[in-house]
Amino acid sequence: MEEMTDTEINDAIHKVRVGILSLARGDRSYAFPLFFEYHDGTFYWHSHPGDKEAYIHATEEACLTLVRGYGQDDWISVMAFGKPHPIWDDQEIEDVEHLLKNVPPPPQLGTTPEGEPKRSEKNAVYWRMTPTRTTGRKSKSPT
What is the pLDDT of residues 103-112, one digit of tens each? Predict the structure, then answer.
């Protein structure tokens, strides 16, 4: 295992489309998966209201973890730390909606009659997080 360079971290962020956002509130933790877009050094995503909002607002520093595995000892892992912020400005929401055009809408409870997860942008909250620091590690199996 070895540390990744800033260039490798940036490349990894652009290869991974889903991560786990870890939050804390008091002595309790909360983590959830999210699809995201990364643009000009900032992560963007949308989610439905729920328990996560109280944790997001209480968290001073969140950790977005991205992992891409190729095999048991062949993987990359990036952690991006920062404070998530809701987006309320109509123009910024419109811009973020355009950025998220290839990101699936957040899931809802239940499935469609075809067995697919229900997804909708209705009542979605838009978020951004500009990392204050990132770390990355990688492992490559010998060939």
Answer: 876 666 667 7
